[in-house]
Amino acid sequence: MIIDSHVHFWKYDKKRDSWITDNMKILKQDYLPAHLVPVMKRNEVDGCVAVQVDQSELETHFMVELAKTHHEIKGVVGWIDLQNKNIEERLQYFSQYKIIKGWRHIAQSEPDDFLLRENFQRGIRALASYGFTYDILIYHNQLKPALSFVSGFPEQKFVVDHCAKPDIGNKKIEEWKKLMTEMARYPNVYCKLSGLFTETKWKDWSARDFYPYFDVVFEAFGKNRLLFGSDWPVILLSGIYVQWKSLLEKYMENFSEEDRLKIFGENAIKFYKL
Description:
The chain is of the alpha/beta class. The chain is built from 9 helices and 8 strands.
């Protein structure tokens, strides 16, 4: 089974989705399962994991409802206020929805010390008893505090979204490489092969721009902790679905069939318990 570990859905709302700026006009419209499913079928993708965009419990309910009518959604990564004192109560409430596999916060938009705050860490500590995962969404320059963060939770399952958004556009790699290699030393941390099209010059890239970054994460995380993801529809700012999937397939053309199946599906099934 081929699983896209990272997609988003929304009914576009100018006020709520203010992160979609004027140079992102293609995203200023609804993106729902009905738009994605034909794309998945063309690309022989069997299922996906829907990941939060808006920071509200309403967003989590929205994705749960979509999953009820679209079997292609195999799991949901929702949003919950992990800093809330009543986090245990909210986790208990949401645990009734088996489609919810984990949680994410837009930490890339927070101060660098956000992941290290006691209130937030209290929320992370509460996840383990429910078996929930946590998606780490950060920029490359936030990797140092993220390393301190994961070191405190050796039993918690983490996945780094979009390879921590390296600065591919400026071909900066050394510091990111060092820190991602350190990150991979924690066996409970996985990494998503997603979101890189938008970390370079939009629509002005070549496959070779990404290969050095692939080399780093494949060497660091190995074949068992990397997950294919498209970051659809955000990917449309810089390319299309088939380009990203084909680029990864080309990079992995000399891999064994067993390893390709892991990265394109089995690792996501294992990580999120799909």
